[in-house]
Structure prediction request, 498 residues.
Amino acid sequence: MKLHMNKGRSIGKRDIMLYGHFIEHFHRQIYGGVYDPGNKLSDEDGLRTDVIDAMRKIKVPILRWPGGCFVSSYHWKDAVGEKRTPMFDKAWRVEDPNTFGTDEYVKMCEKIGCEPYICTNAGTGTAEEMSDWVEYCNLEYEGKYAKWRIENGYEKPHNVKYWSIGNENYGYWEIGAKCAEEWGRLVKESAKMIKHVDPTTELTAAALTDIHWNIELLENSGEFLDWISIHEYWDGINQTNDYADYEQTMAYTYRIGHSIDEVRGLLTAMKLEKKIKIAFDEWNLRGWYHPNVHTIKQGVTKEEYLYPRDKNDDNTKYTMADAVFTACFLNELNRNCDIVGMANYAPIVNTRGCIFTHKDGIVLRSTYHVFDMYVNLLGDIVHDSWNECQVVKEMKAKSGEMKPVEMVDAIVTSFSDKAGYAVAAVNKESDSELPITLDFEGEGNVVISYISGDSTEAYNDIDHEGVMIIKEELGEFHQGMEIMLKPHSVNIIQVGVR
Ligand code: AHR
Prediction:
C-alpha cells in the first residue's frame, strides 16, 4: 500500500481522552482487581500499586466509573462515610460491600493522574440523587452533602467535571430501562438539576445509532448536553463466550466506525455537531461473558449465572486478534477526532481488560501494548491521509457474510510539541508480510516499534510472554521509503521525531 499525506491539512488535534478507559463493579475489576486491601502489592488505601503504575504508563487520561449496568441500581450514599451499607447489586446479582465508593474512586484517579468520570443511576435513581452526588463532589461547603464530604475527611471538593446521565437505559437488560420519551424527559430534568449545582460540569447521556431515540433525547435535552454517549462490543459473546476467530475478527474491522458515522450524521442534521461531541464511552472487541443475566429468564444456580464469569480470566484468549482490532479502532477514533472527543476501553482491569491481576502480580495482555504504543509514540495532530494499491480481501464474518476488508489500516500524525511524523500502520494479514510505502516528504531517522507475536494466537499470561513491543532502527528517511509490516502486526513508524 502507498500512503500519501497532506502536510498542510489536518483532521484535527486529537483529545488525549480518546485513550480513556472504563472500570465497573463487575467480577474482579474493582474488588480483587485494582482494589485489594491486604494484598502485599497494595498501598495504604488498598490500591494495587502495580496496577496503578501500569495505568500511569499508558497515561490513562480519564476513567469512567462505577458502571455500566451496575450503576442503574446503585445508590452512591451507601458507599461514602464511616458506615458503609452493603447492597445487593440487582444488575449483576451479587452483594457489593460498598467499601469502594466515591472517595476511594477519586483518590484512585488522583494516584493514576486521570480525570474522574462518574456515571449516574438513571435506572432506580432520580434526578435529585444525581445532583446530590454532584453537590457532594463539587460544592465547596454549601449544603449537607458538601459538609458530609468534609466530615468524611475531604476538605477540598473532588471537582468531578465529567458526568454521564445513566448508562444503557435504552436496553431491556438495564435495570430501570426507559422508552425514548421517558428518557428525553429524565435527561433534561437531571441535566437541569446538575447544571444548577455546578454549571461547569460536562454532561453526556446514553444514545444509540437509533434515530428515534436520539431525536427524542436531543430535542429534549440537546441544549444541556456537551456530549452524547455510544457503546459497542463487536463480538457480542456475553451469553455464549464463543470467541470470533482471527478471520472473523478482521471481518469486524469492515466499516468499524459505522456508529460514529451515523451519530455524526444525526448531530449534523440537528445542527449540533459544533456543540455536542461523541463520547464512545464503552468499547471492546469482546462482549463480557456473563450468561443468564442479560436474558429474560434469569439463571437460578450460581453455576448458571455466576461462576461462568471466571472464564473471562482465561488469558490465552486475548491474542493478536484483539490487539490488531483494538489498533484499527484507535485509528478510526483518531480519524474522527474532530467529533469524537473521548473513548473508554471497557474495561481496563480484568474481564476483557488490557491489565490482568493475580495475587502476586499483573499480566499485560496484547491490547495493553497497543495502548502503550499509541499513547506514547503517536502524534496528537491527525493528518488527512489517503492510500493507493490497498490490498482488499474477502473475509468471512461470524454471520457467514463475506466482508471486503482492507488489509492495511494506517493513519499519519505529527506532534504539536516536537518535529517529525508518526505513522500507525496495522497489517491484518494472518500469515504474510505487507509493504507500506511512505509517499510524503520528511527527513530524519526512522524507528519502527511493533507487536506481532509468532502467530495470530500469540498471548501473554502469568508465565508466558508471547506479545511484546519490538523496536528497530530503519535508518534515514526518504520519500517513497518502503517498510515491510509483519503479519498480524501493529506498528508505529516514527520519522524524524525529535
Ligand atoms: O457486558 C458489560 C456491560 O455491557 C456493561 O455493564 C454495559 O454498560 C454494557 O452493556
In short: Residues 215 and 266 are 8 Å apart (CA to CA).
